[in-house]
Amino acid sequence: MTMAMSPTTNDTNNNLKKNRIQVSNTKKPLFFYVNLAKRYLQQHAEIELSALGMAITTVVTIAEILKNNGFVKEKSISTSTVGMKAQTKGRTVQKARIEIVLEKSEKFETLMNNVQHKASTAKAVVPPPTTTTSKTPAANGNAEEEKK
Questions:
Q1: pTM over 0.90
Q2: Which residues pair with 103 in a beta bridge?
Q3: Nearest to 79, CA basis, from 93, 95, 91, 65
């Protein structure tokens, strides 16, 4: 049984969610999405990560990184299939879809403050330039003193 999704008012509203991150496995690196999710969580109580097909593993990895580092708690996971028109043949193809809803953990703000504090101190502390001096007698011009 093939079910093609037709855009409904509900689907259109869901696509306009301000706390949804639609992940692609070809466009951006993994930690781009991890950092984006943290920024979204600073503005929203929860975020939704969604992906189709091969990008599903990327979404699961992002969610696990955020969860294992204590930034979020898992609220819900839903999977489905979506009928999409194939680009080359014009026929409907079924694609797997996942949506993971994550909510801020109780320690989210503390963790973010720690991360921001470490980043600001790392930028503020600039080590002095190191100079190397040669210990060979010929380089210092003190060949006689070095032999004694």
A1: no
A2: 46, 73
A3: 95
- Which value, in Å, is the radius of gyration of the alpha carbons in the chain? 26
Interval 122-145: pLDDT, tens: 665 556 666 665 555 555 555 554
Measured over the CA atoms of residue 51, residue 97, residue 11 and residue 47, the dihedral's sign is: negative
- What is the token pair recorded at 62? 């992002």
Q: Please count the residues of the chain.
A: 148
